[in-house]
Each structure stands twice: as C-alpha cells, then as structure tokens.
Amino acid sequence: MKKHFVVIGLGRFGGSICRELHSLGHQVLAIDIIPEKVNTMTDYSTSSTVTDATDKEALLALGIKNFDVAIVAIGENEHASIQSTLVLKEIGIKVWVKAQNTNHQKILEKIGADRVIHPELDMGIRIAHQLDSDNIIDF
Ligand code: ATP
C-alpha cells in the first residue's frame, strides 16, 4: 500500500531515503532549510519545499498532520533535530529520526521518537551478520 512520507534534511542519508521511497511509488514531501539541497530532490520527490522543520506553524501549513511518517534526517545540528522531532510529535505523527550519538539517541527516545536510527552502528551490525552468514563462501 502506498504511503505519504515527509523527509526532513536532504543530506546523503535523507536524500537516499527520499529517492528510494519515491522510486518505490510512495508520496514523498522533501524538506530542507537550504534551497540547493531542495533543488537536488525535485526530480526524486512528489513535492519539495524550503522550510525550517523546527517551525511548527510552517509544518502545519504544509499539512504534515496527514502524513503517515516523518523521517528526520538532520544529523549535525542536534538542536534542530530534537526541536523538529518535538514539534512533529506535538502535531501527532509518527517520527523516525537519525541520531548522531548515544546522548542524542536518549533525548530522542525521551521525547517520543517512534524509531531512532544510528546509520553507522546499524549498518555495522548488518554487515557483521552478513559476514557471519553461512551463505558467504567467496571473499
Ligand atoms: P549526511 O551525513 O546525511 O550527508 P549532512 O552532513 O549532509 O548529512 P546534516 O548536518 O546531517 O547534513 O543535515 C542534513 C540536512 O538537514 C542538511 O541538508 C541541512 O541543511 C538540513 N537541516 C538542518 N537544519 C534544518 C532545519 N531546521 N530544517 C530543515 N532542514 C534542516
């Protein structure tokens, strides 16, 4: 079933999620505070906008309330990531967030993030399991 996603923060991580969800046929709204980042996603999203994702009124005006899941892919600016997550939870939608470190992760969990992603740690675990798999016979 096709869903409505909003991807916030269009760096390598957010950009890759945005492109993949769009290619899978989902409705994807791409958001970044930097116009150049938004421009890179116009062909790989249903719609895209330059918006500060910590601004509750701006997110409400975009109709964010009606989306299934928001993916917060703001990494380096932890304050913006936390603020955006808080606002999205207040609006009342599911939020998956990228964490920069364990402290950031703990704060995100406390404020109600539905899933916290640690790309490097999560990928390290996946790769270790692939290496452990009996299916690998040729290195
Ligand atoms: P990656 O490691 O995924 O490549 P990055 O290093 O490009 O990430 P980050 O600092 O992690 O960039 O932030 C990802 C994106 O989030 C950037 O494109 C940045 O402009 C955007 N961003 C930062 N603050 C906000 C905000 N308040 N609202 C919307 N987008 C924001």
TrEMBL record:
Please name the GO terms that the record assigns under molecular function.
monoatomic cation transmembrane transporter activity
Coiled-coil intervals = none
Which residue intervals define the domain RCK N-terminal in the entry?
Answer: 2-117
What's one GO BP annotation on this UniProt entry? potassium ion transport
- Name recorded for this polypeptide: TrkA family potassium uptake protein
Q: Which residues of the full protein are shown?
A: 1 to 139 of 217
